[in-house]
Amino acid sequence: MAHRDPRRLSRRQFAFLGTQAVGAVVTLLLGIPIVGFILSPLFHRQLVVWRQVGDISAVPDRQPTKFEVAFPLDEWTSANVNLAVYVVKISSQTLVFSNVCTHMQCPVRWQSDLEQFLCPCHGGLYDITGKNIGGPPPKPLPQYVHRIDGTTLFIQNSFTESI
Amino acid sequence: MNALAVIGPALHRLAGELPSTAPQGSNILAAQVAIGGLFSLHILIAGLVSGAAELGPAIEFLGYVRQRRSYDRLAHGLGRFITYYFSVSSTIAILLVTVLLVGLWGHFWTTIVTIAWWPLFIEAWTFVLQVSLGYLWYYTWDPLRGFKGVHMAIGGLLAIASFLQVYMIDVVASYMLTPTAPQNPIRQVLNPTSYPLTVHRTVGNLAYIGFVIGAFCAIGFLRTRKPEDKVFYDWAGSFGLLWGISMTLLQPVVGYSYAKEIQLHAYGSWYKMMYGTLSPWFLWQITLLGIMFLTATLYFARRLRTNDAPGAGLLNAMAVGMVLTIVLAAQPYHLSLTYDAVVGAGLNRPFWEGGLINPLGSMIPWKVLALMFYTLIAIAAVVWYLRGLPGVVWGAARRGEQRLLILMAALTIMMMVTMGFIRENSRAPFLITGEMTIQGQQNTQPTPTP
Amino acid sequence: MSRIAAIYDWLDERTAVRSLARKGLYEAVPVRGAWFYTLGSATLVLILLQLVTGIFLTLLYVPSVTEAWASLNYLKQHDAFGSIVRGIHLWSAYILLFVIGLHMVRTFFSGSYKRPRELNWVTGVGLFVLVLGMAITGAFLPWDQAAYWTAVVVTNIPAYTPFIGSFMRALWRGGDFVGPITLSRSFGIHVWLIPAILFPLILAHLALLRKHGEFGSYINYRGAYRSREGVDVPPAPAQRPIEPPYPAVPTDELWAAPLETEDFFPFQTFKDGLVSVLLVIVVFLLAVAIGAPLEAIADPSTTTYTPVPEWFFLPLDELLLLVPQQLIPLALVLPAGGVVLLLALPFIDRGPERNPFERPAVMVPGAFAVLFVVILTLLGSGRLFNL
């Protein structure tokens, strides 16, 4: 072989590096949009709206009453999602609970014979103020952001504290 | 169901027509002591027989696969044990049923027979199976030596009969604590505490016989002069302990689940055990379990150290860890006999604030953590001992190890008596939770129609 | 020369089909215990059954929150054969998970994960995790009450991971709450993403098996071998040339090659075929007799429905019930830790001993793990029966 400057790339080395460079470009071109797409829900803000629950003047004291409220699923669908709301009046205080259990998010329900909220999945118990008093749930029952206009209750589809 | 239609009303008439010689008033205590004492004795022996009938065939099979005579000798010894003691535990059982239960607790007994007819019927037939297969298994040992397959099949059937026997009586026992739908046999058999109790007792019987093998062989080792017997007893003692502790390691999960089902379906009993008058005994039980794990770990460490086999150092370290965990587990939550006493005295605050509560003794999370921890350490100890076993010379044990084996069996017996006491007293004042009281079984109440 | 032989020659010159057939059909497999080695092919058959029934289900199913339940309800009401296909898809999934469990226990027991077959085991664990992923994402698709609440609870599990938990949950759900994006993502994962990884991994798993040969178990090797005549026998002379994978890598003399082997075709293929066909018949019977249930359409506002986990989630569900709130991440670390231990198994148990009775330090913890899972499943099913 003729004498060559060792600092110059050989044909083999050039092709090797070129293959790697092409691979890197393809990976980036494909990867960035795909990874961005996969991660997109992390950057997407949940659509938060107010919806009317109804007239809560008839709700008896210390008797959690269930209402159902329709909220939009703000993605492309026109369908709504029904969410359960428990309205509790304790003397002058009005508490507006969601029935999402803070353990595994199963649907919690009021048991009038126990006078507690019960989660059927693992037996989690909450008292009438929503405090987690039994079983595995680590946090109290979540409350909806709400406002009361006169006797009409409005809620947002967001909790006062995230779970 | 025709048998039921005939026998049920007959028993009903009998219970109503017999003069009531059953004890009344303060004699109920004597009746309870009689039942409690005899039942404890029955369980202490019958549990061994059941365990032997299940473990023996398993050991014989393992011995066949591994081609080890020592396994066969141990299984043969268990067969002999069954033939000696089956009749003792059966006699006590029959005494219990025919004299004590029918005589002193007749109303309760006829009720439970009416409700749990089929489980008790199957139970009775498993006795026939157990006695015939047990004696057959032992006495055909040498004649069937060339036909090991047949012999092991007999042993296998014996193990199944024994398991079925325990399962059926556990259906009755669990029904007493968490009764459901007496007319629906499937719901009755699968009542909420049926699975936990059956798993708990089956595993427990296997553990119990393992520990008794350990103690028995420890005594044999100390007494014998023949070197080949010393080798056998040394190995068999370790083997029995390994089986015992491995089965006991499953118990915390099962026991916790059992307590959960009791909490969900018989809250009064649960409260009594955890916060009420039985809570000091429950605390003792959790401490006793820890001491059992500790004793096993100390045996493992000592046995390896005796032959300078590797691993003794880590096992001693595990023992220290276990002691610390037991100290955590043994802390009482309420520094009084019951929790209600604390609330009643208005001292519901930590002891450093002048109250009667010890927050470090709360079940959640401290005792649960302690339980998880010493179970994990014990599993690690078993594995570490198994790793060191190739370095052990059987027959060259010292006396200290044998004493630990004997202590282990004593601890187990204490554990079983404690558990039986807690179990039966937690259900008080009920005999069948929510349906029949201890006092109430004395009055003539109508038994349910068959 | 006959016509067929001539055609075969023509093909062979152009495709080398003869040597392919010989390699494929006449591989050496161990003789003793062959019925136990059918579990792997049974798993493959059930997975292929899932693939086929799944593909045909996509001819009707619509992955939309408003259409999913409606399309499957239409299938149930108006399409008897379609319902059977859906039933096969469900029951085959349940039985597949059980058979994978048996296959794992068998290979664990026989020490088939030891050198040089470690990567075979590792790819196998990967396959197990992927199949579990298929079962989970598939369970979300009907969007009935069971599916919806399964989606809610299962996607909530990652939320307990420290620091990144709520992000992981949001990634899967497509937001903070279960909704249309959850269904679409799960459908895409179930139909495209996981199968695209699963099937190449299956090929890798099979290629590795072919390279090293089926290990069998210790009863096929010298020292523990008990032939029908009671002595170690040399391999019988083959009728056709057996493709010898043994020993692919000379490890140690004792475990290099089984003492007695036979042709894969027709001996092992018959056993494999029989076991697989029996399982498929069972699946078919269950599909016709019970079928795939479809509950009421998903209702997030329900206060009467009790979510019940799939059977393979019972141990985790029972654990979640028992573990107090302060220790919940611990309960969730256990399954993850279990998978890590499974992956690391060939690198923890490196000794050459294959006899399960001679390696108690591995067998005892393994037996515990299996017993814990079985006991938790039993207790969970008892509890749910008494709800």
Topology of helices and strands:
The complex is a heterotrimer of chains A (163), B (450) and C (387).
Chain A: H1 11-39, E1 50-55, E2 65-72, E3 80-90, E4 93-98, E5 109-111, E6 116-119, E7 124-126, E8 132-134, E9 144-149, E10 152-159
Antiparallel strand pairs in A: 1-10, 2-3, 3-4, 5-6, 6-7, 7-8, 9-10
Chain B: H1 2-17, H2 27-66, H3 69-104, H4 106-115, H5 117-139, H6 148-177, H7 185-189, H8 194-223, H9 227-265, H10 267-274, H11 279-306, H12 312-329, H13 339-344, H14 363-388, H15 399-426, E1 430-432, E2 436-437
Antiparallel strand pairs in B: 1-2
Helix pairs in contact in B: 1-4, 2-3, 2-6, 2-8, 3-4, 3-5, 5-6, 6-8, 8-9, 8-15, 9-10, 9-14, 11-12, 11-14, 11-15, 12-14
Chain C: H1 3-15, H2 17-25, E1 28-30, H3 39-57, H4 68-78, H5 80-109, H6 118-140, H7 145-156, H8 165-173, H9 180-212, E2 261-263, H10 264-289, H11 314-322, H12 328-348, H13 360-385
Antiparallel strand pairs in C: 1-2
Helix pairs in contact in C: 3-5, 3-10, 5-6, 5-10, 6-7, 6-9, 6-12, 11-13
Question: How does this structure look, described?
Answer:
The complex is a heterotrimer of chains A (163), B (450) and C (387). Chain A has 163 residues and is of the alpha+beta class. Chain A folds into 2 domains: 11-41; 50-159, Rieske Iron-sulfur Protein (3-layer Sandwich), CATH 2.102.10.10. Chain A has 1 helix and 10 strands; from the N terminus they run H-E-E-E-E-E-E-E-E-E-E. A 4-stranded antiparallel sheet of chain A has the order 5-6-7-8, with no helix packed on it. In chain A, a hairpin with a 7-residue loop joins strand 2 and strand 3 (80-90). The model of chain A has no long low-confidence stretch (mean pLDDT 89). With 450 residues, chain B is an all-alpha fold. Chain B has 2 domains: 30-191; 240-445, no CATH class. Chain B has 15 helices and 2 strands. Chain B is flat, with a radius of gyration of 24 Å. The model of chain B is unreliable at 443-447 (pLDDT under 50). By secondary structure, chain C is mainly alpha-helical. Chains in contact: A-C, B-C. Chains A and C meet through strand 3 of A and helix 7, helix 8 and helix 11 of C.
